[in-house]
Write a structure and sequence with these properties.
404 residues, alpha/beta, 31% helix
């Protein structure tokens, strides 16, 4: 069922995470020179800005307090070559559409990371000649958008290609060296054991090149998972793999570990609810993990009908939810309390004062329809009357017309 995830664009790539605040000053078209804290890049949910009915990022920010977004995915051109594109079709060099999204986010005090790779498509590590040329292609993305964070999503089918993974890891190391302060993360597939053989080979390649990103993250879904308990178990097992691969102690391994989930129904029919997200969030924060994110913000809204007829969608979650429910867990991970949505009270209209009629007189004669005022009320005569006080009797000649 994984090809479904490819057609959804749903490789849960890794964001860039950790609790630092280093800023990268970059010359770029959008003029962004100040980074958010690294914790925000760690929490950024995935957003496809050009596909899968992208939501209005500004509206999501207003509704949730979210500040960072992980834009996906940069690939090689579909026709081949070593230049970056969005989704294999839209050249980064001539892009204005994604730049407009970034400008909107930054204008509201937020920022973005860019994810490269994902499930399916042709990756630059497969088409560029070596690590240096792969890095040069990615540098175009960093420079154009003034990035403070970048994500290497290394999974099927690329991570089965030894030469391609060598290029990607080498490129990540070069970018890290050439862009001081750039936040770099790497993600790979998750299994019950933590990650599979190809994921472990990728880690060994990083070790052989002396490359340590801010975190390695796994995607514990689409692999026979069932709720949060199976995911936290995989994270525990992945921690052991990081320890044995890099010689880290448990705490150091957790400080370099991340989680990338899938909200709602996964490609293989697993379901992950808001309660599951809360459980994994509690695990991640209690173990001081470096990242917590999910695929994807495009899916963070309810389907109609809710179960989407038993299929997985790229534009809704297939579980009962309010819009952007899952984004609030990213906000919590970043350490910010999401805003409470309080309905704006409807103001009580102030009644327009009624002017008082001529004051009642005990000596005057009134006939049906005549109006007077008495004791701050207006009164209308029901029939002929004289010297009968308005309101003195329920059955009297005066009809109360209200305060004046």
């Amino acid at each position: 069922m994984r090809p479904l995830r490819a057609c959804l664009g749903a490789a849960a790539a890794v964001t860039l995470a950790a609790a630092g605040t280093t800023a990268l000053v970059a010359s770029n078209a959008s003029g962004a020179t100040t980074a958010l804290s690294n914790r925000w890049y760690a929490a950024a949910p995935y957003l496809m800005p050009l596909d899968n009915n992208p939501p209005d990022a500004a509206a999501v920010m207003d509704a949730t307090g979210l500040k960072a977004f992980q834009l996906a995915f940069v690939l090689a051109p579909n026709g081949g070559g070593c230049s970056p594109t969005w989704g294999g079709t839209a050249a980064v060099s001539s892009d204005t559409a994604v730049q407009s999204v970034i400008n909107t986010i930054r204008a509201k005090g937020g920022d973005v990371s860019v994810s490269i790779g994902g499930y399916g498509g042709t990756k630059l590590g497969q088409t560029c000649a070596d690590a240096a040329s792969t890095a040069a292609a990615y540098q175009q993305v960093v420079t154009k958008y003034g990035l403070h964070a970048i994500d290497f999503d290394l999974e099927e089918p690329e991570y089965e290609n030894t030469a391609a993974i060598k290029n990607e890891i080498g490129a990540a190391k070069i970018l890290q060296q050439n862009n001081p302060g750039l936040y770099v993360s790497v993600t790979t597939a998750g299994t019950a054991d933590g990650t599979g053989w190809f994921g472990k080979q990728m880690l060994l390649e990083a070790k052989s090149q002396g490359f340590t990103p801010n975190n390695f993250s796994i995607m514990p879904f689409d692999g026979g998972f069932s709720g949060a308990a199976s995911q936290t178990s995989a994270l525990t097992n992945f921690n052991s793999i990081l320890q044995s691969t890099f010689g880290w102690d448990q705490a150091t391994a957790y400080a370099h570990e991340g989680f990338s989930g899938m909200n709602g129904r996964s490609d293989t029919g697993e379901y992950f609810t808001q309660a599951d997200f809360q459980t994994v969030l509690d695990y991640a924060t209690s173990h001081n993990m470096d990242r917590f994110t999910f695929w994807s913000l495009n899916r963070d809204r309810q389907c109609t009908p809710v179960d989407n007829n038993g299929t997985t969608s790229g534009t809704c979650s297939s579980v009962a939810q309010g819009a952007w429910d899952f984004a609030t867990y990213s906000v919590k991970f970043a350490g910010v309390t999401p805003p409470t949505t309080t309905p704006t009270p409807t103001p009580t209209p102030t009644p327009t004062p009624t002017s008082c009629k001529t004051a009642w007189s005990s000596t005057a004669v009134y006939t049906a329809g005549n109006e007077v005022s008495y004791n701050s009320h207006n009164w209308k005569a029901k029939w002929w009357t004289q010297n009968e006080v308005p309101g003195a009797s329920e059955w009297g000649p005066w009809q109360d017309e209200g305060a004046c």
